[in-house]
Amino acid sequence: MTLPALPIPPAESIFARALGDEFERLHPQMQRRFGVSVEVGYACVGTGVMREIHPGPWWVRPFLLLGATRNIMFPESGRGLPFQIDNYAYVDGLGRETVTFVRTMELGQGRRRRFDATMIYSEAAERIIDYLGTHQHLAVDLDLSVTEDGGLRLVSGAQRFYEGWIAFRFPGFLTGRAYLTEYFDDLKQCFVIDLEVRHARLGVLFGYRGEFVCSFPEASQVPGALKPYREEVRE
Q1: Alpha-carbon distance 234 to 162, whole Å?
Q2: N or C: which end of the chain has fewer CB within 10 A?
């Protein structure tokens, strides 16, 4: 299936701001996908199949179960699982342009898991900050780069926890680092996503790989179900 051509969106999205001139090196369909912004007025809704979801070693499961209570990763594994990813841009209650990254996995037998994230561009840090979960408890620095084939490479950096008066940065030796690559496959006419969360000494903690196609509906507002329950002012 060939996706209908659309003009490449102007460089107003948070990803265009973070990548600067490198944004133009992305594949045109990747520019379209990561060009979602309030100003351009469309969303990106991807539907496809997770070829594989793997949660890592058994002792990681309790942490993934805990994270699943706030839609931050999950302990299940599987192959050939339908999923949807919803990217909508909106201005949050703190005046920040925000883009949703809500991934919904269909596990079969009526079971479903979500992995929620909302991203902003930080003027102070000059990078994207990724808030994870339903309550934006975790704030993660993201480093972005463009691959040789026009894909997007994302690597997580420092991670901070916020809840009420509690605020601290996780020591590096306690955290995993996320490595995500996404690109557009011209042969298959679909997007491919590959994520691994790895610990420097303990190996892979969580990961998935999938393929999906996107629609780009007009969107003047974000569905309420995709927004976090609370918004964190601290970056």
Answers
A1: 8
A2: N
DSSP 78: B
201 lies in a domain? yes
Residue with tokens 């793997």: 54
Task: Evaluate if residue 2 carries a pLDDT over 50.
Answer: no
**What is the C-alpha to C-alpha distance for residues 145 and 2, in angstroms, rounded to an integer?**
26
For residue 8, being part of any structural domain is answered with no
pLDDT at 113 over 70: yes
Long-range contacts of 4-11 (CB under 8 A, 24+ apart): 6/32, 6/216, 8/32, 8/35, 9/35, 9/36, 9/37, 9/40, 10/35, 10/39, 10/40
User: Could you tell me if residue 233 is inside a domain?
Assistant: no
Note down the domain range covering 69: 14-226
CATH code at 194?
2.40.128
Q: In this structure, are strands 81-87 and 190-199 parallel, antiparallel, or unpaired? A: unpaired
Identify the burial level of 68 via C-beta atoms within 10 angstroms of its C-beta, where 0-12 means exposed, 13-18 middle and 19 or more buried.
Answer: middle
157, 158, 163, 164 alpha-carbon torsion, rounded to 10°:
-130
Q: How confident is the model at residue 223 (pLDDT cuts 50, 70, 90)?
A: very high
How far apart CA 228 and CA 234 sit, in angstroms, is 15
Cα–Cα distance for residue pair 133/71, rounded to 1 Å: 5
Which pLDDT value is given to residue 1? 45
Dist. CA 181–CA 8, nearest whole Å: 21
DSSP SS3 for 22: helix
Give CA separation, 193 vs 12, 136, 223, in Å. 24, 23, 24
Residue 89 clears pLDDT 60, i.e. is over it:
yes
Q: Does residue 232 fall inside a structural domain?
A: no
